[in-house]
TrEMBL record:
<dbReference type="GO" id="GO:0005506">
    <property type="term" value="F:iron ion binding"/>
</dbReference>
<keyword id="KW-0847">Vitamin C</keyword>
<dbReference type="GO" id="GO:0051213">
    <property type="term" value="F:dioxygenase activity"/>
</dbReference>
<keyword id="KW-0408">Iron</keyword>
<protein>
    <recommendedName>
        <fullName>Fe2OG dioxygenase domain-containing protein</fullName>
    </recommendedName>
</protein>
<dbReference type="Pfam" id="PF25238">
    <property type="entry name" value="OGFOD2-like"/>
</dbReference>
<dbReference type="GO" id="GO:0016705">
    <property type="term" value="F:oxidoreductase activity, acting on paired donors, with incorporation or reduction of molecular oxygen"/>
</dbReference>
<dbReference type="InterPro" id="IPR005123">
    <property type="entry name" value="Oxoglu/Fe-dep_dioxygenase_dom"/>
</dbReference>
<keyword id="KW-0223">Dioxygenase</keyword>
<keyword id="KW-0479">Metal-binding</keyword>
<keyword id="KW-0560">Oxidoreductase</keyword>
<dbReference type="InterPro" id="IPR006620">
    <property type="entry name" value="Pro_4_hyd_alph"/>
</dbReference>
<feature type="domain" description="Fe2OG dioxygenase">
    <location>
        <begin position="240"/>
        <end position="339"/>
    </location>
</feature>
<dbReference type="GO" id="GO:0031418">
    <property type="term" value="F:L-ascorbic acid binding"/>
</dbReference>
């Protein structure tokens, strides 16, 4: 598994909120929520295993020696973690203690009695209902499922950034009130929840509030058809896990988001509302790990203003950030879609010229140089012959 994004690199975000100028400051990888003391690289599978894999094994591994969890503050007896550890999927057994603990906590949370969970306000949001979630044009394009059909509803303001109308205003409203509802419950129950990711402090991981199955459907049935067409070279046709969350911007919330890349192959970013000004997204070209801090070319610069209900779809490796939200509140729904096959394959590759802007540039330079060399060799031979 690829290691990028497994480490909290918040310290790297120094500047990098570059305007039209080339961005030379480091672009950190925006990773999933903090696994408290997690510093060492961890297989991404350990952070968020594919949907179907996030469960315990029926039979304990009897030879495995579990860690001790006596110091863990929890509503359960800490010894339960040592017993549960023997039931972890084999790939998790050697993961750092914090990663194992987070994984087991997530599973245990599902066993909490109903009364200890946030009570859903709008139950209809937790299952996929395309007709009440999406605008007709989006549903039509997904049904048609052709590049031509998608092109009819999208605009591509800069190569690799696709924008289209997606969510019904009524769905945005319900989801906003649902988020508010479980935030109230979290505050009242004095529960500690995960931050949406390493850079955003305000918002919530929707997967932790019962939205995991619905968001998985959203990825498989509505995002995959598009990413298969537009992002196949970064795993767009093999997306198999997701991280779904909302982020909140405004006074007393996050104001802006520094320049970064996402820990995703494909990112869906939809504005839910409410009233706000500012908060534009800025994009600065797609880069592989090796070139993540290389200069921006003028043609890679894009500024995008959010409109509620409107989605943006881009590669996770498309460098971007968010300008300050100057008034009001802005809440966006994010779905980071991942492909474990792509991450595995990436380890064996050096040249990413099918999608990295800088790899492409280097390739063009190499081709020009070899063409020039051939030309001058040819001129030398013909010159010596005349
Ligand atoms: Fe991002
Ligand atoms: Zn590259």
């Amino acid at each position: 598994m690829s290691l990028d994004g497994a480490v909290d690199r918040r310290e790297d975000t120094s500047a990098g909120n570059g305007l039209a100028a080339p961005i030379l400051a480091p672009a950190p990888v925006l990773a999933p929520a903090p696994l408290s003391a997690l510093r060492a690289p961890v297989p991404l599978s350990a952070l968020r295993a594919p949907y179907g894999d996030r469960r315990l094994r029926l039979n304990p591994n009897k030879v495995h020696k579990p860690d001790t969890y006596e110091d863990v503050q929890s509503e359960f007896d800490p010894s339960i973690y040592s017993s549960l550890e023997r039931h972890l999927p084999p790939s998790m057994l050697e993961a750092p203690r914090d990663a194992k603990l987070e994984f087991m906590r997530e599973i245990l949370a599902r066993y909490l009695p109903e009364g200890d969970r946030a009570r859903p306000l709008h139950k209809e949001l937790y299952n996929m209902h395309p007709l009440s979630f999406f605008v007709p044009s989006f549903i039509g394009a997904i049904r048609e499922n052709t590049e031509e059909g998608f092109r009819k509803i999208i605009s591509e303001p800069s190569p690799g950034v696709y924008s289209f109308s997606m969510l019904q205003p009524s769905f945005c409203e319900l989801l906003l009130s649902e988020v508010q509802n479980f935030e109230k419950w979290v505050a009242a129950a004095k529960f500690k929840t995960m931050r949406p990711n390493t850079m955003n402090k305000y918002g919530a991981v929707l997967d932790d509030f019962g939205f995991e199955a619905m968001l998985n459907k959203l990825m498989e049935e509505f995002i995959c058809p598009m990413s298969r067409v537009f992002f196949s070279e970064v795993g767009g046709s093999t997306l198999d896990s997701h991280h779904g969350f909302v982020v909140e911007y405004g006074k007393d919330k996050d104001v802006k988001l520094d320049f970064h890349v996402d820990d995703s192959e494909v990112t869906l970013n939809v504005c839910l509302g409410k009233q706000f000004s500012g908060g534009e997204l800025f994009f600065r070209g797609v880069r592989c790990d090796q070139h993540v801090n290389s200069e921006t070319q003028p043609e890679e610069i894009l500024e995008y203003s959010h409109v509620p209900g409107q989605a943006i779809l881009h590669r996770g490796r498309h460098r971007h950030g968010a300008r300050p939200t100057t008034s009001g509140y802005r809440i966006n729904l994010l779905l980071w879609c991942r492909s474990s096959v792509f991450r595995e394959m990436k380890k064996y590759q050096q040249d990413f010229s099918s999608w990295c802007g800088e790899c492409q540039r280097e390739k063009r330079i190499r081709q020009r140089q070899s063409l020039d060399a051939t030309k001058s060799a040819f001129l030398r031979t013909t010159g010596s012959m005349s």
